[in-house]
Amino acid sequence: MTRNAIVLLCALGVAACGDDSSPVMDGGGDAAEDAMDSSTSDATLDVSLDTMAPIDSSVDAASDATLDSSADASGDASLDSSVDATADASADAALDAAIDAAMDAAMDAAMDASPDAGPAPLRAFMTSTAYAGNFVGSGPEDIRSVADGICQMHANSESLGGDWHAWISTPFDTARSHVLGGGWENLSGDVLFADRSALLGTATSTLWTDEGGASIPAGTRAWTGVFGDGSNAPRNCGGWTRNAASQNGHTGDPFTPDRWTDGGVRGCNMELRIYCFEQPMSTGGPTKTRR
Questions:
Q1: Are 178 and 144 within 8 A, CB to CB?
Q2: Beta-carbon count within 10 A of 282 CB
Q3: Same domain, 98 and 128
Q4: pLDDT at 223 over 90
């Protein structure tokens, strides 16, 4: 190899160069030394890499295990959270539905117990006792209080409670001005008059009972002194103070709906019953169960 070639190789860094006096020998020695160094370095690197391989494997395994464990824990936590949330939502929905159902049932029961059509119907009956035309006594001053007292006495005898007025006209007032409220039903709950205006027309039913709930016998009549339009009839046994056969009183026929208060006249010596009507806002003790 020429000197110029060696110089060129040295310049390019391909060969290691010594001093100028022994270029070939130096070049050869340096090359051998470089070869030895390279061989030793490669061997050492191979040993190091072989030694690191199990460590890398262990590290990789540990890392994978840690990652898997973390992923599993995170997945379990998310799943548990989702299950808990679903369970809570279902429980809340079931509780809300139960509360709504209970409230609806309570409201329905309250509405059934207190219908919005207005107050419960009042009651009416015919006295179980029949009276002659002088049922108020000898003086006309107490006609109203005596007649009402008869109705109240019959109601009290059966513990009906309430405040009761007689459907009787007097020389001083009309029956329709004294009997208030409406409608009315018998003691069995059958409607007799849907409202107060029905008193001046046709009765809804003929199912009259007495204060004990017993049905009225056929042919029964009641003293009224009232025409069908509610006005006073002129015949009233002298203001319900006379019982002479020669005198007459106006009566009602409970078995004929349009003649319930205007059913013709009878002699004042005859014994007839009296219509009694419960009044609104009444007091006087417990109301008897309807039969």
A1: yes
A2: 18
A3: no
A4: yes
